Amino acid sequence: MAASSESILDHIPLFAKELLAGGLAGGFAKTVVAPLERLKILFQTRRTEFRSAGLSGSVRRIAKTEGLLGFYRGNGASVARIIPYAGLHFMSYEEYRRLIMQAFPNVWKGPTLDLMAGSLSGGTAVLFTYPLDLIRTKLAYQVNYISAQKSNQFSSMTLVVFCDLQIVSPTKLNVSGMVNNEQVYRGIRDCLSKTYKEGGIRGLYRGVAPTLFGIFPYAGLKFYFYEEMKRRVPEDYKKSIMAKLTCGSVAGLLGQTFTYPLEVVRRQMQVVPSAAIGFTVYDTMKSYLRVPSRDEVD
């Protein structure tokens, strides 16, 4: 059985292994930090109820009223979005790194290579998955607006759960079919279809410029710091999970600090563990899938 699995792995293309490792890393990291994400959303949308209870009181309240699964509500939609993003992010980083090395064998060495490849991979991942993020944002906005208004003119609306997001039931729309002058979407497909009909491809990429502006430096610095720190880890500890977690934590924190200095205090609790877990699972999956070291590939 072991020999059979090894032969299967030998026939999987390198880029596919990296894509799989990156997607699993992103999904796993997102699931681990899901309780923090749920608490953050509740603090933002239901301030009176949860902010007054504090962190520990909010945790007890969710556990009592919703059980363990309450901490992971909404995680399905997040994971569905992050898997393709993370897979493309990690895979394209490796591909860009190899391409740069081949094109500039005597120039692009050291941390500058990771900075450039990381920045390009971040932009690539955003360009391929931005429509998914746009749709998620539209649906989330619709849910928040309806939640805020349902005690008034929207009190008679029936809400249904679709892919971990509350969407307006098609049988209970108001007469105009609008919410706060915005078209009501019945779900992911409906939102995608209407957005495309309204603006075509440009409509699906509305607002992508600021996202790219932010992701280029962050993604580049994140990979730069992670690879630079790994180079300084003693040889005996290079395969240590704790060493990878530490490198990932610091890389995520430094990347966020240099690119979003005003938000780091508010977001570091969420971003540092996510980056640490993501990098660690990615490197671990690469070892399991027998992805050759970069020195062998380069």
TrEMBL record:
Annotated membrane topology: Multi-pass membrane protein
Keywords: Membrane, Repeat, Transmembrane, Transport
Keyword Transmembrane: yes
Main location: membrane
GO cellular component, one term: membrane
Statement: the UniProt record of this protein carries the keyword RNA-binding: no
Any one Pfam family match given in the protein's UniProt record, by short name: Mito_carr
Superkingdom: Eukaryota
Family to which this protein belongs: Belongs to the mitochondrial carrier (TC 2.A.29) family.
Protein name in UniProt: Grave disease carrier protein
Annotated organism of origin: Medicago truncatula
